[in-house]
């Protein structure tokens, strides 16, 4: 019996009851995760090593880099976006776990009103989480990484006030941020479209009855 639960849960997660939901799973599971896992670490991975200031001294570079990135890019980048991906998947996973425990087929989800409403609520929750993540991303990372960072180095001594530092691969980082914003917007649009598909199919079922 437990194996059937696992099988139903897996099929529900991989094959949602809507066409748009299936496309969202493919887009979310392949393109978005690949972009985050491969290209993200390639852009942010060695940022601290290539961050340089004028004068180019190790202690000054380290001080200004810690000011530029209060949270290390490996932590802020990987934890934030990985956590976003996991949290956004939670509402759908909970629903499909419920459906698996109740032995609900994917075809029945759009046929019975109670299951349809619960599924729509899970999609709405997914949209809400994406919107919150979108706002947090703007607050934490902004839209653009500037090539020059002005470091406030007064605490280092009287001879230092404002130090100019070069941010490595600033253009690539900007492109990456825009891509992550775009993925979030696409996901939200797909979720909204999935709700319209559910409503349309429910109306078709009612008219056929």
Automatic annotation (TrEMBL):
Its main location: membrane. The keyword rRNA processing does not apply. It is found in: Cell membrane. SMART domains: Connexin_CCC. The keyword Transmembrane helix applies. GO terms for cellular component: connexin complex. One of its GO terms (biological process) is cell-cell signaling. It is a multi-pass membrane protein. The chain crosses the membrane at residues 21-44, 79-101, 113-138, 175-200. Pfam families: Connexin (PF00029). Keywords: Cell membrane, Disulfide bond, Membrane, Transmembrane, Transmembrane helix, Transport. InterPro entries: Connexin (IPR000500), Connexin_CCC (IPR019570), Connexin_N (IPR013092), Connexin_N_sf (IPR038359). GO terms for molecular function: gap junction channel activity. Residues 129-198 form the Connexin cysteine-rich domain. Belongs to the connexin family. Beta-type (group I) subfamily. A connexon is composed of a hexamer of connexins. This is Gap junction epsilon-1 protein.
């Amino acid at each position: 019996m437990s194996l059937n639960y696992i099988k139903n849960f897996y099929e529900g997660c991989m094959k949602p009851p809507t066409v748009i939901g299936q496309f969202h799973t493919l887009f979310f599971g392949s393109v978005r995760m690949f972009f985050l896992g491969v290209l993200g670490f390639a852009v942010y991975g060695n940022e601290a090593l290539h961050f340089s200031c004028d004068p180019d001294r190790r202690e000054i570079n380290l001080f200004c880099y810690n000011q530029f990135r209060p949270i290390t890019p490996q932590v802020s980048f990987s934890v934030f976006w990985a956590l976003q991906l996991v949290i956004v998947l939670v509402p759908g996973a909970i629903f499909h776990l419920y459906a698996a425990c109740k032995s609900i087929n994917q075809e029945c989800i759009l046929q019975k009103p109670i299951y349809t409403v619960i599924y729509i609520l899970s999609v709405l929750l997914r949209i809400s989480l994406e919107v919150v993540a979108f706002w947090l991303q703007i607050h934490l990372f902004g839209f653009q990484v500037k090539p020059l960072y002005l470091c406030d180095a007064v605490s280092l001594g009287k001879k230092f006030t404002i130090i100019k530092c070069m941010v490595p691969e600033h253009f690539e980082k900007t492109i990456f941020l825009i891509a992550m914003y775009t993925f979030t917007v696409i996901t939200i649009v797909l979720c909204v479209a999935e709700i319209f598909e559910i409503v349309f199919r429910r109306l078709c079922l009612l008219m056929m009855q």
